[in-house]
Specification:
Layout: E1 10-13, E2 19-23, E3 26-30, E4 35-38, E5 52-58, E6 62-69, E7 74-81, H1 88-105, E8 120-124, E9 128-129, E10 134-135, E11 146-147, H2 148-155, E12 161-165, H3 166-177, E13 186-191, E14 195-201, E15 204-206, H4 236-240, H5 242-251, H6 296-304, H7 308-332, E16 336-340, H8 348-361, H9 365-368, E17 371-374, H10 381-391, H11 393-396
Parallel strand pairs: 5-8, 8-12, 13-16, 16-17
Antiparallel strand pairs: 1-4, 2-3, 5-6, 6-7, 9-10, 10-11, 13-14, 14-15
């Protein structure tokens, strides 16, 4: 028997029990039980061939996919930028392409027998209708009530698909194989294009009534703060997300460094009226006069170079995250809070402010004992968590 596109050798053994063997598009009934052991690591070992899952992480700026085994190892991966489009089908096609690329990277490209996978786990920005998997991510305007779970199930031949919030996948990944694998009660926070969170309580993923439990991005940290895209006021996401922090810095007068330069951009030119003209600052997502739009990386670089506005912006974001985690520590009696996401890696200014705010706002001894740590594997943890929905159902799956 051959599995299209797979690498390595296969050993076949038989017994007398009847079984249905699927190979590509053809299904044949025989009286031979076939056990496939692959030198590439697929299908063999404890639990049989259904110990490998596809995983998809859908964020506001990127798509990431992986093939993950029962130990949490990522055997193949792919990454794509999130298309800038209002067409839902373009976004879906990019997600499918990313998944197929991950299969290819794992040596499972071509006409792969999807029945050899345990399923497909997805972490996607919210909100969503859960557990139906109809998604309307705030930061992905092309998807509004998009039936992601059903479409992926159809696309991959009826494969089992589970869809949850991307920050919930982060929590599952941290608890399954990451920083929180020894914790019973864990909050995972992602600080990136948006801010989200997920909860593991008493050793199991906690969903809540609608699947939105742990949505720390919409905890109010400043009642007099800015409006949030969710419709609220003063939410953590409205203050601490990467784009909102960059926008705050620009409004405060931050000037990003010139492209390909370690220094600040040149000063404004004379406008002909005897006073230097102040150029309009580029907004996040808008190209500046000298190159790509300013973003969180540019802001972090400026902060590292000593720019006071950039440092103040990162400290403001870190402070807000610390306040929110302090509230959650007192509410849920946590063992650990982990923080991941691209913007959370912006440097020591962010983390010093986060820890100072956490210390300042936790008075109860049990809350002060909670560990607050960065993720040890920020690039893979959400993918592993999405796979955990499928591969560790006793702790992370759900009925629906």
């Amino acid at each position: 028997m051959a599995t299209g596109g797979s690498r390595g050798t296969h050993t076949v053994t038989s017994s007398t029990a009847p079984v249905t063997v699927t190979a590509g598009p053809v299904t044949t009934t025989t009286t031979t039980t076939v056990t496939v052991t692959s030198s590439a690591g697929f299908g063999g070992g404890a639990g049989g061939r259904h110990r490998t899952a596809l995983a998809l992480d859908v964020g506001g700026t990127k798509l990431a996919a992986g093939v993950v085994d029962a130990t949490g190892a990522v055997l193949g991966r792919a990454r794509r930028p999130m298309p800038k489009t209002l067409d839902p089908e373009v976004t879906f096609a990019a997600a499918v392409d990313c998944l197929h690329s991950a299969l290819g990277d794992a040596g499972l490209g071509g006409r792969y027998d999807y029945a050899g996978l345990a399923g497909l786990g997805v972490g996607c920005g919210g909100p969503m209708i859960w557990p139906a998997g109809e998604v309307s991510p705030l930061n992905i305007p092309s998807w509004r009530e998009f039936p992601l779970r059903a479409r992926l199930r159809d696309e991959f031949g009826g494969l089992a698909v589970l869809v949850h919030n991307d920050a919930v996948a982060l929590a599952a990944g941290e608890h399954w194989t990451g920083t929180g694998r020894d914790a019973r009660n864990l909050l995972a926070v992602t600080v990136s294009t948006g801010v989200g969170g997920g909860l593991v309580l008493d050793g199991r993923l906690y969903h809540g009534r609608t699947g939105n439990a742990g949505h720390v991005g919409h905890i109010v940290v400043d009642p007099a703060g800015p409006d949030c895209v969710c419709g609220g006021v003063g939410c953590l996401e409205a203050i601490a997300s990467g784009p909102r922090t960059v926008a705050w810095a620009l409004d405060a007068g931050w000037t990003p460094a010139a492209p390909d330069s370690g220094a600040q951009a040149p000063g404004p030119a004379d406008d002909g009226a005897g006073e230097p003209a102040k150029p309009r600052a580029s907004r996040p997502g808008e190209s500046g006069p000298g190159g790509p739009p300013p973003d969180g990386r540019a802001l972090a670089a400026s902060a590292a170079a000593g720019d006071e506005i950039a440092r103040a912006a990162l400290a403001r974001a870190g402070n807000a995250v610390g306040v929110a985690i302090a509230s959650c520590a007192a509410t849920f009696d946590l063992d650990l809070a982990t923080v991941a996401g691209g913007f959370s890696q912006s440097g020591p200014v962010f983390w010093e402010a986060l820890r100072a705010a956490y210390d300042r706002h936790t008075g109860m001894e049990f809350a002060r004992a909670v560990r607050v740590e960065p993720s040890t594997a920020p690039g893979d943890v959400a993918l592993r968590g999405a796979a955990a929905f499928i591969l560790a159902p006793d702790r992370y799956a759900w009925v629906g």
